[in-house]
Amino acid sequence: MHDPNPNQSPVSPLRPLPGMIFASRWLQLPLYLGLIVAQAVYVVHFLLELWHLVEAAAGSQTALQQLVSSIGYKTSVPLTSLNETVIMLVVLALIDVVMISNLLIMVIVGGYETFVSRMNLEGHPDQPEWLSHVNASVLKVKLATAIIGISSIHLLKTFINADNYTDRVLIAQTAIHITFLLSAMAIAYTDRLMSTVGDGKH
């Protein structure tokens, strides 16, 4: 049997200590498996909230009260049916779950590919487009962008339900969102500088 790549130099075995240190990357595996469990919990939560929304639309008062309680909506007039505000808040909560789920997928797949082991997905029809050029810097920027999206949804939910929040909470959430935005811009700018410096060395 011939070597399929004769130009590739044979990989020399690692010495015991470097080998043990390199193998320690597999300690991250339970962390990613735990995130998969968290993803499953989010799926169950999403389906329950969606089911309560359907039941409330069909006239169930119990489902309506569960929705009102879960989104933290308060009104001086007792609710007897769904209104536009409640529907919008529930839909935003569902979108929030989806965006957090996307964030989990990026962390699980991108983190495993970057820090643990290659998945060898090249040529697979379902390979994510961003995974083909993922590295620690790209992953940081994508995670920062995803966090901004999640923060935007939370801020929009707060503004829609602003009557149930104090001015201090509204200002604090706005300041936090701006901080996330500035942090993401700083991460992206730093990554661009590092890429420019790295290209200049070649």
Give your account of this protein's structure.
This protein is mainly alpha-helical. Helices cover 69% and strands 0% of the residues. It has 6 helices and no strands. The longest helix is centred in the C-terminal third of the chain and has 34 residues. The protein is elongated and about 75 Å long.
Identify the notable features of this structure and list them briefly:
202 residues, mainly alpha, single chain, elongated, 6 helices
Helical run tally: 6
Multimerization state: single chain
Shape: elongated
**How would a crystallographer describe the biggest sheet?**
none
Distance between the termini: 38 Å
The helix-strand sequence is HHHHHH
Mean pLDDT: 82
Q: Helicity range of the residues?
A: 55-70%
Low-pLDDT runs of 5+ residues are none
Question: Can you lay out the helices and strands and say which pair or pack?
Answer:
Elements: H1 16-23, H2 29-57, H3 61-71, H4 84-115, H5 136-160, H6 167-200
